[in-house]
Write a structure and sequence with these properties.
2 domains, globular, Jelly Rolls, 5-stranded antiparallel β-sheet, 10 strands, 311 residues
Length: 311
């Protein structure tokens, strides 16, 4: 059987949730102020969202599973979903739905491609949004978050020329603001004795290096199922494998192959948990030469065999 993960795009969200956007933005940008969401049934099955999604919980409580980790989302929680993330909602009854209120903002890859963001600030010490998607805001941070959303709603309903550019700049500002908050939380959570994996500012931390690193991660998120050789990604970026490997290591503190492996492991875990397909089919889907290589790869990264993980 095929993997039981539904592919969700902006159009799917618009069919289920009330949107407050201009028609000119409907293909690339979505924003909704949601209360008592009856169509939440859509998200109770594992879904992979093809875009960027921000969820700000104003009231209520919600159980979610994001990339195989469970979280309790309550008031003042901000959730950031990046392309390729698999998630679902669980443990929601009619009573909790009636008290639920959150704001959702979704963007296509194309919409965000026009923004130059310092994604390294969101991937410090090899901890990415894939591993840390939920942030609990303070009262002052919540107030500013609400103002960002209110302004985004006002802009999305405007007929002002150049609306997409205005929204992109607002999104860029929000990413930098919440990225700084994220980094502060991660820094507090890390043991003080730990050595920083990211290098100190220098020639390799230039804007171009960060942009190349971001492009590398985007390519890995799209091709990790079939391409695990740095030569492929270097060729796509018109760089030599040696130079790309050094740049990725210097910028993130983690090697290129390690980044690729982390995506592959996540994909393998999702297939094992959300599908009934035999392991040999997963081996084929992920382009491993044989089951023995896949078993060794999976056990090395998880400490258990695929069969043990699936139990």
């Amino acid at each position: 059987m095929d993997i039981k993960v539904h592919q969700i795009g902006l159009r799917d969200l618009q069919r289920y949730f009330p949107a407050t956007i201009s028609d000119d933005l409907s293909d690339d940008f979505f924003i909704s102020d949601i209360r008592h969401i009856d169509p939440l049934q859509l998200l109770r099955e594992p879904c992979r969202f093809d875009g960027y999604l921000g969820l700000f919980c104003m009231e209520g409580r919600l159980g979610v599973e994001i990339n195989l980790k469970t979280y309790e989302i309550g008031a003042d929680s901000l959730v950031i979903i990046v392309p390729g993330t698999i998630g679902r909602v669980y443990g929601v009854d009619d009573t909790s739905l009636k008290g639920l209120h959150f704001v959702a903002v979704a963007m296509s890859r194309e919409f965000l491609s026009g923004i130059r963001l310092d994604f390294v600030r969101l991937y410090e010490e090899s901890l990415s949004l894939l591993d840390n998607p939920v942030l609990r805001l303070t009262e002052s941070e919540r107030a500013l978050c609400r103002r960002y959303f209110d302004l985004a709603i006002a802009l999305s309903q405007s007929e002002t020329p150049g609306l997409q550019d205005a929204l992109r700049q607002l999104v860029s500002s929000a990413f930098y603001y919440f990225g700084a908050i994220w980094q502060g939380r991660l820094s507090l959570a890390r043991p003080q004795a730990a050595s920083p994996a990211v290098r100190t500012p220098g020639s390799t931390r230039t804007s171009r290096a960060k942009m190349v690193f971001n492009s590398f991660l985007k390519l890995v998120s799209e091709h990790h199922g079939t391409e695990r050789n740095m030569a492929f990604y270097a060729d796509q970026l018109c760089l030599t494998p040696k130079y790309l490997s050094k740049l990725v290591k210097d910028v993130s503190g983690q090697s290129g192959p390690d980044w690729i492996d982390s995506f592959v492991i996540l994909e393998a875990k999702n297939m094992l948990k959300y599908s009934d397909m035999p392991v040999k089919e997963i081996v084929y889907r992920l382009h491993f030469p044989n089951a023995s290589v896949f078993y060794k790869f999976f056990r090395t990264h998880t400490g258990v065999s695929p069969s043990e993980y699936r139990k």
